[in-house]
Each structure stands twice: as structure tokens, then as C-alpha cells.
Amino acid sequence: MQLGLDGKVVVITGASGGIGRAVAEVFAAEGALLVLHGNENVNTLRAWAGEQPWSQNALVVNADVRSPETLAALTDLAISRWGRIDVCVANAGIWPAEDAAVHEAPIDRIRRTIEVNLLGAMWTARAFFTALEACGPRDDGHGASLMFTGSTAGRFGERGHSDYGAAKAGLIGLMHSLKNEIVDLDPWGRVNVVEPGWTVTHMARATLDEPGTIARVVRTMPLRQLARAVDIANTIAWMSSPVVARHINGQVITVAGGMEGRVRWEPEQIDESRVRARLAPDDGRPS
After folding, report:
1. How far apart are CA 186 and CA 183, in angstroms?
2. Percent of the residues in the chain that have a pLDDT greater than 90, as a whole number
3. Residue 122's Cα: distance from chain center in Å?
4. What is the DSSP string of the chain?
């Protein structure tokens, strides 16, 4: 299936992480021109991107998503290199691994989680919309796309991680507003959210390696398996397509094996070794 992404300019924030790299790989396979964002791990990202067969089609940029100014500079670099921006994947995020009730969590942690996950996505959208206003819509009618990477924590909550859940839930409200604003800049522009559940990435690997965690996680999922980073990336690319998803706007697509807010399986019905056997070996790649 042709997604119409060949030659499209795609900005991906948080491209140094497991999902971000998978998104880069999927878009690169579609022939897109990439602007890959990193911050603390930007040097690792630059080295990795330089080893890829599509490296000549990738620009690696360092920016702090908490800073609107550095994100504006990122989009300026993208336009100076590629002429415009067609797709933006606001994927950058953090997940504090330690459980902490809201009255016990350090204030600095709460602020940082919300600043990166929610405000960082808003500043990314702001920079993208500014670039879209400057460049205007494409002549071929292929509309621009903004994708947010949310989380099932924003839908069901996550005990001990209220800061993360609140930030991801905020992306839904942000999307519902921006889907109405983007069409003022591009009549075919769209804004959507992909909502992963538990996904095997470097960020989650340590938690998932704790005995009993996988069984606890998949108890609420009809599909007793965990998502791989490429599962999320494929969904993002499909949703970003101006061809096959051109009429999908303001939607949340959940990629979580049918996760529900109720228990589906008891621990004795879950074979952790079988679930682990279905994991791709590179899904825990370091970020």
C-alpha cells in the first residue's frame, strides 16, 4: 500500500528512544526526508542515524522540548534544509520509573513530567503550525499531519504515576482543539493521537523485567502480548498518510492489545515465558 509519504518532510521528536527510532525507520522506508530530534541522547542518535542507509535523508537536531525557542529553531533548520515540513510526530516524553503517590512525588518531578510530555508537545505543535503558516499548504492537496504519542495511562490512569497520566490525558484535549485550528493553515491538515499501552522499549525494559510485571500488565488485555516499538511506528505512519488516512482527524487510535479497565486473565492463565518469546530482540534498544 502506498502511503504517499515519499519525499515528505517529517519531524520526529524524541527520535533517540525506542519508539522514536522505530518511527524514523518506518518513515525512512517510505522515502520520507527526516528531521530527527534528540536532547540528552542526541549524540547517540546522531551516531545511529549516520549508520543508516538513509542517512543522507536525515537531519539530526538538538533541542529541549521545554523551550519554545529551541523548537522554533529546529523547524527553521528543517525549512532551510528541506523547504517545508509536511508531518510532525510529537513523540518526545519521559516516564519516571519510580512509583510515587501524588502527595509523595517530588514537586520537581511532577513539573518536569508535565513540562516535557504535555507542554513539550504543545510547543512542538506551536512550532509546526508556525512553519505551516509560513510555507502554506502543498499544491498537490496532500494535507499536513500532526501526530501526538499519548498513552493508555491518560485513559485509564496509572497508580503511582499521576503526573504522567495527567500529561498524557492533556494531549487528548490539545488534539481536539488543534484539529480545528490546523485547517485554518491547511484545509486538508489533520491532528490525531496514537495511544500505546505497554510497549517494550528501553524506557520500560527495567520495569518489565521485574518478575510478575508482564503477567500483571497483560491481565487486562485480550491479546496476551506486549506491543513492539514498530507496532506503534506503523500506526503513526499510517495515520500520517495523506492518502490512506486523509479523512481521519481528531481521533485517538489505541495500540494496546485491546486493553480494558477490567481484569481479563488471572496470573495462572498467563505464561510469561511465552509472552517474552514474542518480543523482538531489538525492542529494548538503548536510547
Report:
1. 5
2. 74
3. 13
4. ---S-TT-EEEETTTTSHHHHHHHHHHHHTT-EEEEEESTTHHHHHHHHHTSTTGGGEEEEE--TT-HHHHHHHHHHHHHHHS---EEEE-------S---TTTS-HHHHHHHHIIIIIHHHHHHHHHHHHHHHH---TT----EEEEE--THHHH--TT-HHHHHHHHHHHHHHHHHHHHGGGT-TT-EEEEEEE-SEESHHHHHHHTSTTHHHHHHTT-SS-SPEEHHHHHHHHHHHH-TTTTTT--S-EEEESTT--SS----GGG--HHHHHHTS-TTTT---
pTM, whole model, 2 decimals? 0.87
Please give the grid coordinates belonging to residue 171: 494531549
Asked if residue 228 lies in contact with residue 199, where contact means CB atoms within 8 angstroms, the answer is yes
